[in-house]
Amino acid sequence: MASFLITGASRGLGLAFVKELASRKSSEVSNIFAGARSNVPALQEHSKTDPRVQFVKLDVTNPDSVKEAAAQVEKKLEGKGLDVLINNAAVCHYDMQKMSNPTLEKDIMREMTGLEEEFQVNVLGVQYTTREFLPLVEKSELKKVVNITSTFGSISSASDPAIAWSPCPAYKITKAALNALTVQYALEYQNKGFSFIALCPGWLKTDLGSQMADLTTEEGAKASLDIILTPGQVYNGKFPMIKVKGWETQEEAASHGGYAGKNVYDGRNIPW
Ligand SMILES: NC(=O)c1ccc[n+]([C@@H]2O[C@H](COP(=O)([O-])OP(=O)(O)OC[C@H]3O[C@@H](n4cnc5c(N)ncnc54)[C@H](OP(=O)(O)O)[C@@H]3O)[C@@H](O)[C@H]2O)c1
């Protein structure tokens, strides 16, 4: 029986985690803390029908908000620990002009949009959240901290055309920094039984991923949980890609059309 807290649970992958966890038996999932800036109708619906789903007001960029959220969760857990913290909230700014016209003459590095905000949410937000919830995770059985990252944060894959085409340098920089943060925690806490995982959930149909993406949020959440709930510390300090049936080889991925063929979901560890 495990307890979970998900940041950015109001929509996209975060909301899909809430839905997927709520579909599992109480013998597997005890508490689902849906951390979000506001209690959106989709979350209210879930908490009405399933007492395991509890909204927790949480703006990851505001240290006071994170502290209050951690105190609230601690009270609700009544002495028990938090098994899994999923740092999912993020923002991404694409240069829309460059996106619609890739040949446009534009210096997207000097005109980089969103770097400060993306650092606040995607890196500092994860640090604020992790440091406040760490004592609760330490008290738990599973002791997992999952940082939802992206292949866009892979420095060694940066020139890969499937990554290089997307004009969002600030997002790529912050996800690389998040990966580095994950590794530092993984090294520091491995002897205490923790797993810090930099997990790529695949290219998903969300506001951030667009409707052109390969996978639904349901597929992304399910496949992410397969990795998260793998027993032991095998993924500590690793950067795994999800594994999805029918997408495990180049040929299978190509058969889905569109961008498929470029993105394979085979559970591999992505190079940093
Ligand atoms: N979609 C993809 O293709 C894809 C691929 C690789 C990795 N990822 C990663 O997957 C995760 C989820 O992405 P998504 O596609 O589901 O994005 P999304 O649909 O844009 O949702 C982003 C979530 O983050 C929340 N958020 C933003 N700033 C916040 C803050 N300051 N405090 C708390 N919550 C905040 C949003 O809350 P509000 O509703 O309040 O704005 C929203 O719930 C992200 O880490 C993303 O980098 C996504």
UniProtKB/TrEMBL annotation:
Top-level taxon in the UniProt lineage: Eukaryota
Pfam families linked: adh_short (PF00106)
GO molecular function, one term: oxidoreductase activity, acting on the CH-OH group of donors, NAD or NADP as acceptor
SUPFAM superfamilies assigned to the protein according to its UniProt record, in alphabetical order: NAD(P)-binding Rossmann-fold domains
Similarity-based family: Belongs to the short-chain dehydrogenases/reductases (SDR) family.
PANTHER family noted in UniProt: SHORT CHAIN DEHYDROGENASE, SHORT-CHAIN DEHYDROGENASE/REDUCTASE SDR
Protein name: NAD(P)-binding protein
Species this protein is from: Neurospora tetrasperma (strain FGSC 2508 / ATCC MYA-4615 / P0657)
